[in-house]
Amino acid sequence: MEQNLTGKIILVVGGAAGIGRAAAQLCAERGAQVIIADFNSSGAEAAAIGADFLPVNVTDEASVQGLFASIDKTYGRLDVLLHTAGILKGAYVPLDEFSLETFRAVLDVNTVGSFLCAKTAAPLLRKAEKGVIVLVSSGAATGGSSSFAYGTSKGGVNSLGIVLANSLAADHIRVNVVAPGNIDTAMKRSVIEADLNRQGKAGELPQAVLSAGLGNPAGVARILAWLASDDADYVRGLIVTR
């Protein structure tokens, strides 16, 4: 049974592409007022599904504060934060060559960005009867990664979610972390391409993508939409997907 999200105000951070884009579209189809916040977007993706668009740089606290101030002014509350923003840099770079600059850049977006959005969203989510935070991690956090920075950053997201779930329970804010793996997104394709390049097989990307058996972002979107719904009231913690 499809969850009815009518009346819910749902913010999808990183909703212009990939899993976030699929989740935003599905939540809109199920009746939610969706707001897409992203860094590299003109807002066309939001307009295409009838969502609102607000720009944000999740590594900049002032930018994050401005995002939620705009939501507060327009809507007065927030029911759900779906945080899907993330980057992957340094795929297959050897440890001795992995730069501190790259390491910090990835953690700033993936881990610090998750923290800043959850922190700033909390006052708005408290205004909702049942607030929800869903952070998107990755199977790379526990199963290994092509990038030292990416795997580490997503491990931080897992732990952040656990701490948030405990600390926000008294405020009736439910927190989950979703950890997908091998999903067909531009980010995943870039990792496959990096692996082929290091093997001297740059022209084999289409076949490599096919052979990888990647999952559809829409499958993860269905999980995110369910977690955003009241049907998931009793669900807490880490959810690992394909």
3D architecture notes:
49% of the residues lie in helices and 15% in strands. It has 242 residues and is α/β, with parallel strands linked by helices. It has one domain: 3-Layer(aba) Sandwich (Rossmann fold), CATH 3.40.50. Strand 2 (33-38), helix 2 and strand 3 (52-55) form a beta-alpha-beta unit. The longest helix has 28 residues, at 100-127. The radius of gyration is 17 Å and the shape is globular.
Largest sheet, strands/sense/barrel: 7 strands, parallel
Tell me, briefly, the overall form.
Answer: globular
Strand fraction = 5-15%
CATH homologous superfamily grouping: NAD(P)-binding Rossmann-like Domain
Question: Distance between the terminal alpha carbons, to the nearest Å?
Answer: 21 Å
CATH domain class: Alpha Beta
- Unreliable segments (pLDDT under 50, ≥5 consecutive)? none
Count of discrete structural domains = 1
Number of helices in the DSSP assignment: 9
In what order do the strands lie side by side in the largest sheet? 3-2-1-4-5-6-7
Question: What's this model, at a glance?
Answer:
By secondary structure, the protein is an alpha/beta fold. The chain contains 9 helices and 7 strands.
